[in-house]
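One thing: mind reviewing this one?
=====
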Amino acid sequence: MPRSLRIGVIGATGQGGYGHGLDRAFQDVPNTKIVAVADQDRSAGQKKAKAVGANRSYTDFRRMLDAEKLDIVCIGPRWLTRRVEMVEAVAAAGCHIYCEKPFAPDLVSADRMKTACRRAKITLAMAHQWRAMPPIRQAIKEIASGQHGRLLRASARPKDDHRGGGEELLVHGTHWFDLLITMAGRPHWASGHIQVGYRDATVKDRTDATEPVGPITGDSISALWGFSEGVRGYFESTAHLSIRGKSNFDNLYGVFVECERAAFHFRQPGDAWIYPAPKVLPDQKHLAWRRITIPGWHTDDNGRPRNVRRTWIHHGNTVLATDLVEAIREKREPLSGLDHAMAITEMVQGVYASHLSGGCRLSIPLVVRRHPLES
């Protein structure tokens, strides 16, 4: 039996916390043990350490790295203000990384973190929990098999609440772009159009997101990426379309995937629906959506429905954390690894670069690494 891996957790109470459950990501992973937590808020760190069964807490993550001889570190804060510093320090300590999304605010930061990880020969996995959902995995498997014909295009939509536009491109788009890359491979080019109100956005419209995740602008974005074999990926977002307590739907969050003979729609909490035509045809009454139902996921051993909404994010973290452990031992890339993180950052920054270049198509990887909103 392999030795138990020692897990450390970096959080930041009041500054992005522990992301989407990254403090508990390894609690149900065999042959791992969460041994320490680092949080600059001493009291919060001590409470978190007790909650996850860690023996010690630190107010400085560097002290934790020096003292604990860790194998894997969860980098939990959603804020990106110290992301590069944390990744570089963890990599220099020789620890593998499970990282909250989004990966980076810009390509300069992403390049630095990639260099640190490659130099230290450590493995980084991103917390893109949608990738781990059983119905999504089944849908991806069916698409890859070709049983529904060739993959043609995929259209992604975020929640389109008050964060619609630039913030959603980075914060929620990262999940969808991870799925696009999983299905279609790395993108070859990017094109984008960004508006503020009813006019085109300019560099002067740069603003801050609700959390510090890098430069953003726009309350309406249309983006297009080109992949191999003619596959296209789309992203549309407009702020304030989903208003809590007023809209007659919860949100627009989802991905519509079009194949030659079928369409898929991915919806929260990680559900996948399939339709027997590439486009929804309301006049064709014999065609209807069917949910991909996974026994043991949607239902318990007795066939009774399970409340998946209570557990889906933790399940996703467990799958991805387990995959990271296996990837380390097998010396391979994890399901959503550093290559995906870099490509996603290229996709996001490529939208801004294209728009501010007059909407022209730009090849990926981008030649100019500095974020165009920082000019």
